[in-house]
Amino acid sequence: MNFQNLMQQAQKMQREMNKKIADFEAKEFEYNYQNSSVIVKLTGKLEIKNIIINDVLVDPEDKTTLQDMVAEAINAAIKAVSQQKEAITQSAMPKGMGGLF
To answer: Which residues of 46-70 are buried (b: 16+ CB within 10 A; e: fewer)?
Structure first.
């Protein structure tokens, strides 16, 4: 295989990976935290679209617990979506070439 063919293959893989990532970033994800206590909707770009808080959690006397749960839910949602994105990136790499690109 000559260098030009290798470069063409690398460019093709890069285009395919860019498309997969763009498709992923355009998707919306829903993360259900602690049995629907807090539901976080976000994009693959990790932009929060909506946060739904179960009415049972709304206690005017205990605002801190609610704030903590929302922060935990957002962080868990971001972690879950980030892991999915990483899996897409890893799957696009050819076997044995992990450090090349």
So the answer is: eeeeeeebeeeeeeeeeeeebeebb
